[in-house]
Amino acid sequence: xxxxxxxxxxxxxxxxxxxxxxxxxxxxxxxxxxxxxxxxxxxxxxxxxxxxxxxxxxxxxxxxxxxxxxxxxxxxxxxxxxxxxxxxxxxxxxxxxxxxxxxxxxxxxxxxxxxxxxxxxxxxxxxxxxxxxxxxxxxxxxxxxxxxxxxxxxxxxxxxxxxxxxxxxxxxxxxxxxxxxxxxxxxxxxxxxxxxxxxxxxxxxxxxxxxxxxxxxxxxxxxxxxxxxxxxxxxxxxxxxxxxxxxxxxxxxxxxxxxxxxxxxxxxxxxxxxxxxxxxxxxxxxxxxxxxxxxxxxxxxxxxxxxxxxxxxxxxxxxxxxxxxxxxxxxxxxxxxxxxxxxxxxxxxxxxxxxxxxxxxxxxxxxxxxxxxxxxxxxxxxxxxxxxxxxxxxxxxxxxxxxxxxxxxxxxxxxxxxxxxxxxxxxxxxxxxxxxxxxxxxxxxxxxxxxxxxxxxxxxxxxxxxxxxxxxxxxxxxxxxxxxxxxxxxxxxxxxxxxxxxxxxxxxxxxxxxxxxxxxxxxxxxxxxxxxxxxxxxxxxxxxxxxxxxxxxxxxxxxxxxxxxxxxxxx
Length: 571
Prior knowledge:
The protein has 571 residues and is α/β, with parallel strands linked by helices. Mean pLDDT is 91; it is low at 1-56. Helix 2 (86-97) packs parallel to helix 14. It has three domains: 1-65, no CATH class; 68-276 and 510-571, FAD/NAD(P)-binding domain (3-Layer(bba) Sandwich), CATH 3.50.50; 328-504, Flavocytochrome C3, Chain A, domain 1 (Alpha-Beta Complex), CATH 3.90.700. The radius of gyration is 24 Å and the shape is globular. It has 14 helices and 18 strands. The strands form three sheets. Strands 1, 2, 6, 7, 8, 9, 17 and 18 form an eight-stranded mixed beta sheet that branches. Strands 10, 11, 12, 13, 14, 15 and 16 form a seven-stranded mixed beta sheet that branches.
């Protein structure tokens, strides 16, 4: 059976992973410098080092052959956290609070930090203050419904049970320092929606309402806090591989800013939080090659190159069966630009693209309910020529988007209790004018002229628009069931069209874990001493990201990071 969106069969992957783990088990480190021979989809080696589809298996490679004799320094700690992103920072803070000796390392010069847009939680003090009550059983089942129960409901329940306390800790932490503030998005649409929307998003901004700079401020404050509790932080320190003695991970080999090897011993455990593999083109192409065809660009973290996942696999850990990522529907390109090569992209980030206007394929036909989660339109367009879609709107767009009342980071205008960083309609108008001038958005006085400018069949687009106007007049989308208040007429020229593809934010598949955040091995038993959180961890999503609970992934990262740090420190 082929992996979903992947070019490597499960049989091939497990054979390669098992061979790596077994063949290296006798070594103090999981080592071996050379790249693995590429493996084709039937498990046969390729003599030229290249396989038919962007090297189907050589993304895994082999760990470097490092020994203690190669190291210029040996460090002893109790809890080692690898990666200074959201999950890693929460983990290191929690472990240090519990009195453990903590070392946090980051391979980049600057920490990635805590996502300012939204951290999702249930029963936080802000939600209680605003009278927000979320049914835990309902949201747990909603998240698992999106994953078709291929995920672990115990992990989702853990988030639901512990996210409130995590956000309360975070809110207190922010308030005590006085430079930032946490605000809640609680204003949901007043009309019923086909897809449930949840008031979960806790955003972080600088005092006074400015978002830019908040993430750096919080990261620096957290690192200072870890140091104040006796912990240590090292940047430009890259994990090379895990060190495994018997069945237990006891530390890592890493390289310092000078490229010299060091050994870090972690007596209580190693916590991997390196952010997934969204910036590893080879790995992503092998595992999610079909999804890549529908991507126009990237919005990924620079350090997310699969380091933690690959290291855990070398140590015998178990990967998610299905691979997925978080995608925005906001990659705007000129009509003559093809999508599918996001690492060499000509796409422009187009926040307006999420608005639920009419969207058609290259044939000028409507293809889905446009008021669905971000990546649903990406998946729908993948079934058609070009893998892109075209958003159509008219000069009444300001009235329309005000009525649409989208939530999360798709929000365009300020509302009390709304998302904390909308651009405002005047800024959107400026961006539309800029995109028209650059030829990204086409503008015309008739639908037929618009179709010609966008490279769409005029007769079909006109028929689609006429039908869409009928649905608006009826007040009901009898074709695809879009929420009635999110229908709009297309009758007021000039008309606008923009070609769109997906923009990837992060990968969501990873190493399978239990509710102690221990990595699960190929034998379905925990690997002692190895813990995985954040986008390196799996068991939570499949195929899509349920974005109508704003910040559910970042909230998971924060919650799991915090409780993993507490647990490892207690060992």
